[in-house]
Amino acid sequence: MTILGIDPGLANTGWGVVEFVNQRYRPVSFGVIRTGTDHPLADRIHAIATSVGQLCDRFPIDAVSIEDIYFAQNISSSISVAKVIGSITHEMKSRSLDVQYFSPLQIKMAITGMGRADKNQVQQMVAILLKMDKIPRPDHAADALADCITYAVLNSTRARMKGAVK
Question: N or C: which end of the chain has fewer CB within 10 A?
Fold first, then answer.
């Protein structure tokens, strides 16, 4: 299974692609989609969704994992991020892909086993789980790779639970 992870943002949307086969992870690629403040909001949102669609053309994506919004800080930026998530979701569903959203807490738990893990701890575990020599950069890309791993962890656990409950 090839998973596309998305760390959504208006200025910087991190993305990562991870293969998950036989309970093993293999990083495929990662990066960041950047948009500038000199463009209208609608154009920026469209550019992000289009770029994510192009990733699906480039890689054989089976599923998409998107970090959900955390509302603790700036509400107005959260609204923009919600619009980005909506446009990406539309693009992915138009390709008939499974899209799942995970909260920051779910991601921290899946990656580190601790809900209060800090960003650096999550990124260190991403590097360990993906057998990378160093933490992937930029941060948004590392977060997107964490989204991929979260999808794999939670969905394989759900599948095992269904098999056990007959």
Answer: C
